[in-house]
Amino acid sequence: MTQFFTRINNGLDYMTESQGNEPGSALFARIAQMVEARGVDIHQHLSGNSLKLEFADGQRILVNFNAQTGGVWLAARNGGIEFAHHHGHWRAPDQSELFDKLRHTIEQTIASNPLNARAPVAPIPQAARPEVVFYREETHNHLLRNALILLLAGVFGFWAALRMVQPNPANDEGAQMPTLALGEPETNPTCETDFPANGSITVFPGSGLRADGPNDPEITLKNDHSYPMLLILSAPRSAIPALSVLVRARQSTALHLPAGQYDMMFSSGSAWCNPRKGFSDGHLVKFDKSLTVMMDKPIQLAMQSSGAGKEEFQLFVHTATPDVPLPEPTFAGDGSMEVKRAANGHFYLPGTIENMPVTFMVDTGATVTSISSTLARQAGIRNCKEMQFQTANGAASGCIALVPHMTLGNFELNNITVAVMPNMEINLLGSNVLRNFQISQNGSSMLIGLR
Questions:
Q1: Pure H helices in 135-245
Q2: How far apart, in whole angstroms, are the C-alpha atoms of residue 406 and residue 93?
């Protein structure tokens, strides 16, 4: 089983699209209202049909409205996706909705750096100038007095304005891009001079954790990121580190952990500090999904680059399951087939992608059929458009391709859209293929035939 993890928070308050066509001006006005309602420091820059959202750490989200095609392009550092207007909703090819996707991307960007969660900077009010009352008198002395009062009022107003804009040293810490605090904050952490060897494990005092139990499940770490990475494990809902392990770039390591749940934090960079802080030129990134370790089920953690930056990576968690023979389908004369439910509760169907044999797991909740990048490469699928997908566990990077020919049992299909996903172990049969068939289920059996 493969799970995709991204740096996001759950529990978002999603906004749905209003009815009717929405030109660029109304679209950007609605986005501006949504951004302001979020209540964080996001600067909005509107230029023609392009809106740029800039965050406190410099990250940007771009929304571009194409007046000729009527489409909207949403781009962030993890990629871009195009939306078209259909029946009152902005929809992408994967059926994700524009405002849901934008809100999700904003939350992901906020969660990637604590600096992005700061409140908006309030505008500096104009210094109140004292009201000067002029008395109309005929004497020269009174005119001179009034002129002097006016001059003093101007000097006082200028001095008050300088006081308002003068920086407060106590509030300048937000510009330092702080990392997520682990336990007691380290104002002056002691950094080591030597870079540890690959696979170096540190068990912190008082954690009671072990990493060498021969009977504990094996955890393999595979770092395909361009930078070395430090994994820090802690107890659930705790920021106090229990154990950390270093994996150098393009290398792997393994350890054994007792069964249980662990919160995961990562540090990536090039300037090593220590096993608690990680890298002095990086930030600690905490994932919102806990790592569940079960007896007799080895786990692989695969870190892959999703961009050129130190913190631009994705985490894939593979949980090994024992190989169990899948039920073979039975075929009728009209080509229909019946398949029994497997021991894990799912239905599996045989097929091919460009004559390459494949076993699909039926997933009625998936909009698009998904295959692994390995299968796509073996089948000779080359033309693939990069996209971001919404999975059950958050956003994941992949691409969309068109399969000229595929089979499902004895049935043949042409020009089928598939999502190609990296590190995918199970090929999913989605509703874009299933809707071509008449499907019925009777207890533990599924019958598939032509409509």
A1: 140-165
A2: 20
